[in-house]
Amino acid sequence: LYGGGLGQLGRQALAVVVVAAYAFLVTYGIGKAIDRLIGFRADEEHEQQGLDLTVHAESAYDHGVLGHGAPLSGTPKTPKVHA
Questions:
Q1: Is residue 10 domain-resident?
Q2: What's the predicted TM-score (pTM) here?
Q3: CB contact at 8 A, 62 and 68
Q4: How do residues 19-74 score in pLDDT, each as one tens digit?
Q5: 38 found inside a domain
């Protein structure tokens, strides 16, 4: 192999495994700490009602309204001014 042989490749492979294990363990620890302190999930009742309404007090999609909104015309509707 270019520039270091199999010994260098082995050390680099070991470093990859060590860094991956370290990243996994730290992330796992942070996740466990968050889960114990504040939790990841919302209450089941809030999930059933929809988190948009119960947590954020808004609706992401208003499924009951059709045909409302801005017109597709590029010219805005402005009142005529009579001088």
A1: no
A2: 0.53
A3: no
A4: 999 999 999 999 999 999 999 888 888 888 888 888 777 876 766 665 555 656 66
A5: yes
Q: What does the pLDDT read at residue 20?
A: 99
Residue 77 lies in a domain: no
d(Cα 48, Cα 54) in Å, to the nearest integer?
Answer: 10
CB 15 within 8 A of CB 4: no
* Residue 36 placed within a domain: yes
> Any idea which residue has 């409302």 for tokens?
68
C-beta atoms surrounding 54 within 10 Å: 14
Residue 76: band (very low, low, confident or very high) from pLDDT cuts 50, 70, 90: low
Q: Provide the number of structural domains found in the chain.
A: 1
Containing domain of residue 47, as a range? Answer: 20-56
